[in-house]
Amino acid sequence: METNNQSVYFFMNKLATLSTFFLVIFFGCTKITPDTSIILAEYTLGTGGDCTGAVVAGRYVADTAVSAENTVTITVDVSVPGPYWITTNTANGISFSQVSTFSATGPQTAVLTATGTPLDTGMTNFTLRALNGLADSCTFSVQIIKGIPPHYYLTCFLNGVYRNFSDSAGAANGNIPGPSGSAGFYVSGRDTVTSTGEKIEFGVASTMNIGSGIYTDTSSTYAYFSYADSLAQTWLVNNGTDPTFTVVVTSANAINVQGTFSGVIKKSQGTVTDTIAVTNGIFSVPVK
Fold first, then answer.
1. Cys-Cys link to 61, which of 107, 109, 147, 285 (CB 3.0-4.6 A)?
2. 57: which strand partners?
3. What whole-number distance in Å separates Cα of residue 252 and Cα of residue 265?
4. Mapped to the 3 state alphabet, what secondary structure does 178-229 carry?
5. Which is more confidently placed, 25 or 163?
């Protein structure tokens, strides 16, 4: 019995020794030698001002995660080609970064992709830094817009061209003045292509809530319409003796308003007589 105990002890001791040996082989003796032959890129971004040639792409909607389409393209001055890593701070829930390689010197472009989910609307500023460049930085801005649920919409045709103004669309109905200066019924929305800056605002001027009905620009409870184009020019209802603009409210409650709109608008700047035909306008937007 004593001999058997000694044999078991010897076997267990050997097993422990071998286990320790293999653990050392697999986990304790691995040595990673850095590749010192890799030369990182050297480049400049700017001197703290706006990033050179910064072009922001994609739509940035509050509470909606960004995708691969949300990027910013910048131009940098490369003095030494090689791998680079450029990133920004995290602001309003998102950030931008890119890891790639510059293959030539001189002005080169880098496309940084956004990650995250915007938290709130408004203009958001980012500081871009070269993590392996010359430690300088520059800034650029992104406009975060308010989204609209899928079952809401605000669209029309302007001179026969389909337009979607559903971004940040909403309505008011009551004692809140609209662009007319009067309270009543008011709808607004921005172009879904955020870089254009175009928007429409329209409604029915009244001192109280507006219900279902047909309203024109010549009625006592009159309809109005305003369109701001990409050149910041304003187009308004061309008032006259005959109705030129009509807003039809088919449903109005505390949550949602629906209806149609159509008519003719004229450029308000100077003596220009150009007009735009607004046709097939439809809306279903939330009351805010």
1. 147
2. 71
3. 25
4. CCCCCCEEEEEEECCCHHHCCEEEEEEECCCCCCCEEEECCCCCCEEEEEEC
5. 163
